[in-house]
Amino acid sequence: MTGQLNKLGLDRRTLLGASTFAAVGLALPGLARAQAAPVKVGLISVLTGPQAALGTHLRDGFLLGLKHLDNKLGGRAAEVVVIDDELRPDAAVTKVRAAIERDRCDIMAGVVFSNILAAVIRPITETKTFLIGTNAGPSPIAGRGCNPYFFATSYVNDQNHAVLGAAANQGVEVGGQNKVIRRVIIITPNYQAGRDAAAGFKSTFQGEVMDEIYVPLNTTDFSAELAKIAAARPEGIFTFMPGGLGVQFVRQYRQAGLDLPVLSAFTVDEAVLPAQGEAALGLYTGTTWTPTLPNEQNARFVRDFEAQFNYIPASYAAHAYDGAMLLDSAIRKVGGNLADKAALRTAIAAADFRSVRGNFRFGANQFPIQDFWLARVVRRQDGKFETQHVRKVFENAVDPFAAQCRMPAM
Prior knowledge:
The protein is α/β, with parallel strands linked by helices. Helices cover 40% and strands 22% of the residues.
């Protein structure tokens, strides 16, 4: 962690800021102590194993946000305690409890995977600690399980998949012409998130789902499934293949010689494009953000991220960057006072910051109301691959579970 902080210019002396407040303490000791203590954020991410690339994006996006804020949150010095959840719920819970009880973290943030979020949300929020989720967005937490101490800067999981159903109805570019996709085969991993992805797509798709293929999570050979798809002759494929699954699926799709539009979410993005390379060119994804969204905040984020880390950020990084900016705005609104939980919650809910996505505000369930885009993989002039926004599919979208939220009192 120290190496990472030094890489970003976030040394301990800068973060703690003790010398800055020493003289003030002679006259105003109470105020000086409050100001001198850093805001401690526990940042939860997956940093080991095959999904570590996603967690690395999340971590680096948040740390770049801090760098842009001069290593402060709301004017107070900031310190980040990075927590590797190892993609193991039991390990995540143990480490999160230590961060709160031993390390005295004031706020928790991050989380890539929904199973980790489901495991840690109660141990965090039962201590009246705020958790800013920057990626995972399981529908139960957006609906009946909404929580006054949980805010998301990302989305509800189903929404990204629903983008592709709507895009298929509107049509996508095929051979230089817009083509409405009327017959689709769905292929996803056989676990809850895979079935949720299929449900999200079907919630907006108006055509015929010819077949639904569910494969084991450890699948490395898709040849049989791709042959079945080719024989059925659909007009398009919808898939959700995160991380390494997406790398194998996209490569084998090209090797099979298929030339069907591929509509996906979390299958082609900047976290896996370096491994997919040319095989991903032209494939579509549904997303809240791309590196090419035309606003000043996004341009600065992408430019400085690439300069700092030497790779193109994915949405995991963008949402985490927004998480840092959100916390800065909220802590500034309460004058650095983290003890008044009700005031801090009101300040977070105000979302008074400039998002890299442009439109952004919180709904009643404390998930974003935001725009969603159809994007496509392109090759940049420098030869690198990225997702490029094609068109806006949903504007100021409210997730479908918000109406189920009856927010409990704090």
